Structures are given as C-alpha cells and as structure tokens.
Amino acid sequence: MYVLIVFLYVLIGWIWQFPQTILGFIVSRFFKDIHIGPAGFKIVLVRSSKFPCMCLGEYLFVGNLNLFRFVYGRGIVSRKLGPLFFPLISFPSIALLMLGKSSWFMTFYGTRWSIKNGARIDR
C-alpha cells in the first residue's frame, strides 16, 4: 500500500508540474552530478561560475551552493503553482534580470516567496 501511495504522489507531481519537470529532465541529462535532496528533489550540481541556480520542476540546478536555500524555495513554489510557475514566476524573473533590474528582482513577489519557503529547509 505504501509503495502505491508513493507512486501516485510522484505521478501526480509529474502531471501537475509537467512543463517544467520534463524540461528539467531533458536538461539534467547533460550533467552527471545528480543527487536526491530534501523533499525528494533531484539536485543537479553545475560546475560553472556563470551559472548561479535554476529550478525546473523536481530538478534543482545549483551552481553556487550559497543559493541552495533560494533554489529549494523555488522548487517548493513550483510544486504549489504547477503549470502556472512559468508565467507567474519564471518569465517575470528572467525579464527582470535581462533588463538589469536586479534591485527590483529582490523585491519581486516570486523571489520573496522563494526565500520564505527556502528558510523552512531546517525544520
């Protein structure tokens, strides 16, 4: 019974976060350093100083370990929003960073929500 419950939980999570999780799965195939992290996330360590972090569904890509709590928080937000994660969080975040509005990025609702959720990792 326990195995069935876990299977259904994973299946529903994949369906709910399908766009970002399938993209994360595809991108993760280019990296060898993959670990299972807290709450079942797949942690992909990226060996690049130019790549800070990224969350794609169940896959957390971390280049700077100091940002792990933030990207973990993004993963929690992704689980909560499901298919709305890209239009509500990812695209506005990317736009703010591309426009050079890094001071606005830290006050952006998606960033604040990610930091708040990432702080729960110790609990």
How does this structure look, described?
The chain contains 6 helices and 4 strands. It has 123 residues and is an alpha+beta fold. Helix 3 crosses helix 6. It is globular, with a radius of gyration of 14 Å.
Question: What labels describe this entry?
Answer:
single chain; 123 residues; alpha+beta; 4-stranded mixed β-sheet; 6 helices; globular
Which stretches are poorly predicted, pLDDT < 50 over at least 5 residues?
none
How does the helix and strand content classify structurally?
alpha+beta
Count of the domains: 1
Share of residues in strands: 5-15%
Summarize the structure.
This protein is α+β, with helices and mostly antiparallel strands and 123 residues long.
Topology:
Layout: H1 2-16, H2 18-28, E1 34-36, E2 42-45, E3 53-56, E4 59-62, H3 68-81, H4 85-98, H5 102-105, H6 109-118
